[in-house]
Amino acid sequence: GQQVMQIPQYQHVQEGEDFTTYCNSSTTLSNIQWYKQRPGGHPVFLIQLVKSGEVKKQKRLTFQFGEAKKNSSLHITATQTTDVGTYFCAAGGNNAGNMLTFGGGTRLMVKP
Amino acid sequence: DAGVTQSPTHLIKTRGQQVTLRCSPKSGHDTVSWYQQALGQGPQFIFQYYEEEERQRGNFPDRFSGHQFPNYSSELNVNALLLGDSALYLCASSLREFDTEAFFGQGTRLTVV
Questions:
Q1: Which residues of chain B are within 8 Å of residue A41 when distances are taken between CB atoms?
Q2: Which of A67, A91, A108, B9 is deepest in the core (most CB within 10 A)?
Q3: What's the total number of domains in chain A?
Q4: pLDDT of residue A97
Q5: Residue A100 touches chain B, beta carbons under 8 Å
Q6: CATH label of the domain that carries residue A97
Q7: Which of A34, A56, A57 is nearest to A105 (CA)?
């Protein structure tokens, strides 16, 4: 079945430093979604990427979808303590219904 | 507009017992998916319900079953509980017509002892 790998597993940064998490699939993806889960919380949707080479920005967050639609990345500029949490990429299904295959997540810790 | 609601929030069961978890989707959504999230891992897809039928299923045994009601709410049943079933169970709702974001509930934390 479809597998999604995410690295790194953990990342400690000093507040103000940048952060990047990478997501890779062995198969071509129809779309990729990113979610954030705060400690003790539930996944919250951040964005969906659909097109090859797509780049989307949300304030300090930049999301990219690879040209081959097999990889994606999330980059946070100048991290803040509010960015703490686990960031998951999730591959959307090829059929209707939005079955998601999640990566293992990258846990971001920010030192003030 | 209520989001996705799940009940109960926490549950402790004994090995071999059965459990039922409940989910009410976001208003206007017609599709409910269930995920199991073990500690420190990403959510794993269990199954999805649409029009009261199971439409897709992940790699979970038949001990995991579900139901969707005419009002789109859903139940997840797990029989013959194992210690390894201890996890956060997440319900996610979406609109089938659009392959877009899933809205997750706060989850049910199941502990099997």
A1: 106
A2: A91
A3: 1
A4: 60
A5: yes
A6: 2.60.40.10
A7: A34
